[in-house]
């Protein structure tokens, strides 16, 4: 892990219009280059708001986010070239083929011609989708859609990849392929920010995790170190429940 | 940036052509709409003017000249089928009244007994009074006689008959009455003068109308375009269908938003305006192709149903630009509705009902001059009114680009307004995004 933070979050606060409480409340955090950073929290904890501000979609009410030296609010165009976002929804056009979807999203990153074709073919091969590339996405299985959804965020070789629950609702094989590939990317120097409700997956994958609840970071650290710090708990899920409580969230 | 724009266009085209059912709806439905609505207009109300479709029960209790003249007048107008008997029996007033009351017939006319006698007596007396003024005849006797009461021709109407049609009927009866009265006055005067003044030679000139009517439709061009149902209906229904592009366009926008693709696109280095204008470009072409299909239906399909052929007028350039700006206005409206609406249901309900309302107040269904004054004020702010005014200038008045420039300007401004509202609303909802 590099000593240089690629993402610097300072006193980040977001209060939505009409809301009684802030969605995120004075979060400060450094994410280092080459990290796989897990952003964990129950529903409504503030994960999506944090990610949206990181992507430059929302302006923070207070505080700042800097990615690779660029302010996310002041320089959203530069930020968008640096990051790759993999949304929780299957953000693909169902009546386009996998290849057409990837070509379109690649074009939006400013890639065209043989460079884009080669990259698409490369990723389709990596994720075992070559044979299905020219089928309509609405004919794909859930796992295949998730894989294309992931590829669309990788095409432009971003320095930072933000994944919002990339493995939700898919078969074990697809899940393994996706997680292995993320590790491989990380080995190549890509920083990964990852949200999930699967604590075991986060424990296994992440170099560090932040557990967020009610807009605040309640604990932060390497999963193994957290378990050492809290020996009364046998896994990350127990720590998560300890800090966020057993009450169900809307 | 243009590469990204064309890529957005390509994606939109692919999405459209993959949706076969949607595509059929986009092109087939408007053509069917044009044909059905034109047929209804042509063979509905206009049948009153053309074919002897309206059956009129005629009760002639007069059995003399006036009854015969009124009957002849109706028959010659070509608009009515005169029915004198039902079940091989002459119609009486009570039978006619009952038949109209039941709704079996729309109209019944009863010419009362002695109508001719009464009118003839009045004409004679009027002539005699005039001649008495010159000292002819027996002035003291003539002046002591008073004119008989007027003749009451009764017309029974079904309650569903429109006021304008009732007025036309009454005018027709009145016209025949006055014509007959004038003829008789002329003839009686001629005869009486011959009796009173032996040296007077009765005029052989037949009584005839000196006033005739010539219909002229002033147009900007030398070639006159004859207004007909096709010239009126095809542009009106074409505009109506064009604005219904709001439905597929809002569906596309909301689908993109709900499916998460818009979220992904907003995280990419592409301005929202590029995404928006990509959609505008493709739907603009779709709208223009739709219009072409509808206008061609007016030229080639409507004549197959016995309707007049649509005449484009002399200025295809004006027609092209008018179609372009109407398409822009309708696509802009769709963008605005699709961006502001939160759900498919909201967009579909608001989109379709608002288009119907704008069409109604815009004068697409009822001419503006028939609307009450406050509605006329509203109609001038409907983009569909600007559209129909522009199209009528081209299709009915032979107008060129200069003559439709005010409507083109208004529609372009409306398009700019809708795009600005869309962009501002998006900015308001996504403050960090441009």
How would you describe the overall organization of this protein?
The complex is a heterodimer of chains A (250) and B (434). Chain A has 250 residues and is of the alpha/beta class. Chain A is 37% helix and 23% strand. Chain A has 9 helices and 10 strands. Chain A is globular and about 50 Å long. Chain A has helices at 47-54, 76-82, 98-108, 113-126, 142-154, 172-187, 199-205, 223-229, 236-244, and strands at residues 5-14, 24-32, 36-40, 62-67, 70-71, 83-86, 160-164, 191-195, 208-213, 216-221. The mean pLDDT of chain B is 84. Chain B is mostly helical and 434 residues long. In chain B, helix 2 crosses helix 12, helix 6 (115-133) crosses helix 8 and helix 10 (246-259) runs parallel beside helix 13. Chain B starts with a helix and ends in a 5-residue tail after the last helix. Chain B has 17 helices and 6 strands. The A-B interface holds A 52-53, 55-59, 72-73, 76-77, 80-81, 83, 85, 87-96, 100, 103-105, 107-110, 112, 136, 152-153 and B 3-4, 7-8, 10-11, 14-15, 18-19, 259-261, 263-270, 430-434.
Largest sheet of chain B: 4 strands, mixed
| Assigned CATH class of chain A | Alpha Beta
Helix content of chain B: 55-70%
Rg over CA atoms of chain A: 18 Å
Distance between the termini of chain B: 15 Å
Fraction of residues in H or I helices of chain A = 25-40%
List the helices and strands and how they pair.
The complex is a heterodimer of chains A (250) and B (434).
Chain A: E1 5-14, E2 24-32, E3 36-40, H1 47-54, E4 62-67, E5 70-71, H2 76-82, E6 83-86, H3 98-108, H4 113-126, H5 142-154, E7 160-164, H6 172-187, E8 191-195, H7 199-205, E9 208-213, E10 216-221, H8 223-229, H9 236-244
Parallel strand pairs in A: 3-8, 3-9, 6-7, 7-8
Antiparallel strand pairs in A: 1-2, 1-4, 4-5, 9-10
Chain B: H1 2-18, H2 20-43, H3 47-50, E1 54-60, H4 65-77, E2 80-83, E3 85-86, E4 89-90, H5 93-101, E5 107-111, H6 115-133, H7 139-144, E6 154-157, H8 163-196, H9 229-243, H10 246-259, H11 261-266, H12 272-301, H13 316-340, H14 344-361, H15 373-379, H16 383-395, H17 405-429
Parallel strand pairs in B: 1-2, 1-5
Antiparallel strand pairs in B: 3-4, 5-6
Helix pairs in contact in B: 1-12, 2-9, 2-12, 4-8, 6-8, 9-12, 9-16, 10-13, 10-14, 12-13, 13-16, 13-17, 16-17
